[in-house]
Every structure is written in C-alpha cells, then in structure tokens.
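Hi support team,

I'm opening this ticket because the web form for multi-chain structure prediction keeps timing out on my end. I have pasted the exact lines I submitted so you can reproduce it. The total is 443 residues across two entries, so I didn't expect it to be a heavy job. Is there a limit I'm missing, or should I split the entries? Thanks in advance, R.K.
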Amino acid sequence: MSIIESLNIKKHCNKYRVGLWECPQFLFVLMGIIICFAIFTTYIVGRHFYDDPEIVALIVLIVASILFIIGHSIIMSFERIAKVSRDKSEFIDIMSHEMRSPLSAIKWQSDVLLSDKSSPLASLTEATRYLEIIYEQNEKMIDVVNDLLEINKIEDKELILRPSLFSLEKLTRVVVLKNEKYASSSKIKINLNIQENDTAVFADEERIKRVIGHLIDNAIRYSVEGVEVHIIIKQKEEFIYWEVANIGTGIVPEEYDRIFDKFFRSQNAMRFQTSGTGIGLFIAKSIITMSRGSIGFKSSRDKQTIFWFTLPRSNKRV
Amino acid sequence: MSKKILFIEDEEALQLAMSGVLSKSGYEMINASDGETGLLAVEKHFPDLILLDLILPKKNGFEVLQALRKNEKTKNIPVIILTNLEESENVEHALSGGATTYLIKANYSVHDIAAKIEEILNKHS
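Hello R.K., no limit was hit. The queue was backed up. Here is the completed structure from your submission:
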C-alpha cells in the first residue's frame, strides 16, 4: 500500500462501513491536529497571559476537555467496530449451523442411497422419497446462500430492484402453498383473508416473494402448535396493506428496537427450540423500504404478534 | 431381543435415514419429533440408547437431557447428542449434563453413527 493510499482516510472508513465520525483513523488524525493546535495555542496564550495563570489554567482545562471528548469518541468507535466483529462471528456460527442442517440431511440420504445395494427396483419408492428430501434440502441451502448474498448486496448498497405491477394476492397464495407442508407439520393452518379485489402493487416481485416467505416462515416458526396463522391483504389509501398474525412466544418490549437488526435472534424461550438466521427481518425491512413501502410489527400481551408491510399501488411517487 | 434406540429429532429427513439404516442393522427404532414427545417415549419404551438433537420444539435437548439424568430410572441410559451446534459452551454444557458423547451431524455419515452406537452399547452391556 502506497503512502498516499494509506492517507486516504475516507477509503479506510468506507472499508469498515462506518461514517467519518465513527471511524478511528479519522478521529486519530483529528485528535492529532487538535493536540498540535492546542500546544501552539497554549504556548501563545501562556506567553500573552504569563502574569495571569488562571486564564492559562482555564484554557488548558478547555483543551483537556475537548481531548477527553475526542478520546471518548475514539473508544466508542473502537467498541462499535468490536461489536461488528462480534456480530459477524455470531453470524458465522448461525449461518454455519443453518447450512450444516440441510447438508447433513443431504449427506445422510445420499449415504443411505449409495449403501443400499439390494434390488434398486424393489426400493424405487423409497429411493424417490430420499431423492425428494435431497431436493428439498438443496432448496433450503439455496435459500440460505441467497439470503447471504442479498445481505451483502444490501450492505454494499448494490441491491437493484426490478419493479413491475403484480398481484400481491397471487404471490401470497404461491408462498402459502410452498409453506403448507411446513405449517401442517406443526398442525398450523394458514388462513388467507383478502379484503380487496385489486391487490396489484408496483415492486420487485421476486424480492417481495422472499419478504412474504420470511414473514410467513417466522409466523409458523414462532407459533404455538395447533393455532391458525392469519394473513390479511387490504387497501390503505395509495398502498396495499399486508399482514400476518400469529399466536406464539410474542416479542418482549426490551427487544422491540432490535427486531429488524441483522443477525438478531430473540433471547426468548424459542431460541433453542427452533433454528433461524436472524437475517430475514433485516432483509424484509431493507427491501420494503427500498420499494417505497413501510414495515412494522405489533406484539400484544396475549402473545399475538402481527408483522405488516405496505407497498405502493403504482409507480407514482406518493 | 433387539435393542431399542430412540431418536429425538425434528427433521424428518434425518429420522428417515437413521431409521432405515439402524432398522436394517437389527435395532428397534423409535422416533420422536420434539422434546416432550421424546420424554414420553422414554417412559413408554425405555430405550437402550437415545440419540438426541439439541434444537427441538417444546423442550430443547438440554432440558430433555436434564430430565433424563434427574430420573432414577433413566439416568444411566446412554445419550448421544447429535447436533450441528459446535460452540464449545454447548459441548461442555451437554457433556457436563451427562451426555455420553457429542457428535456433529454434518461430520458423520449414518453408518459412522451406527458404528458409534454399537460401540457404546457394547460398553454398556
């Protein structure tokens, strides 16, 4: 790295994905400049007021306070970077677990298929079942990898949406169908309530499909066995409003602020009862916000949780 | 009489593969899809060995292990933890809680696990 490159503080700060005022390199340079300036000023002031030590002491006190504040900012910025590093480690742990689960299933099924040398025709149905599982697990792996790529694109501000007009109802039905098997394994019924004939929205269909996928998956994942998950689609002024409600563990108020943070997983009782990456809601919020919609949630004491979003009905700016 | 193995695992794909191989090896397989059902199955079938996942609905693997070890009747049943959680705190937690061994699913084939089961059952018989 050349000396000129090493002096490009903005580039370093961009590399850490932090703003200038949170970037240690910038703060160090700023502190250096202030120290030089402070020494020079103290010298001038000291010379001028050499017979008035209180003024000199006051100026030294002010300079020391400024240096203390900058020092504190530097410590805070280091803490922030340390937190990011810790979050990344946690994320790697979670993701490796998420990827290992389908990989284990693929490994075990292939192991069984490869080791079963007895009459392939006799066990054709069994073999087909194993192949189906391998296919499903592979799909799960693809979803996890897609989420990873999506999160990187969002962070690097490289996510490009390709909006078009499509029916939110039709898309929701496709996603519900895909999740029905998962829901029925927990004896959960998905109830769809469409309150509007025309549910066309202007957004990136593929991306919104994933948002709905994440929200429905969460609703099933964090539901009590045997309950119903309700989806409502209705018009709300120039937007289409979509919500999914479930009865489950609920969200404690202390976690409200972090619910859309990436890698965030609730510390509730379900942490060891269901797996998850903690990136679905972060991706959902990023996509909905970029699509000129809004997203939020409500959680009540009876453990009902509603996640909702709105999307514009046309490409006109509202 | 064939030995009974209880597999407490919520992933059907893994249950199917494990049951297929172990049944062919002559074991009687019992599957449970969550912690609560797993503990009920222990009381009902009194298995010779338990394969236990950690992330489980209703009661997680740590809670199941604790319940097994607290009960006089079940405290000596060998328990193999089969999970993809690799953090040392989880391994220590499970082993100090009385697990016989701790295996990472992705690192073992079904046949490797079958061999491990045989080894543990031979030691305990």
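A quick check on our side: The mean pLDDT of chain B is 92. Let us know if the file doesn't open in your viewer.
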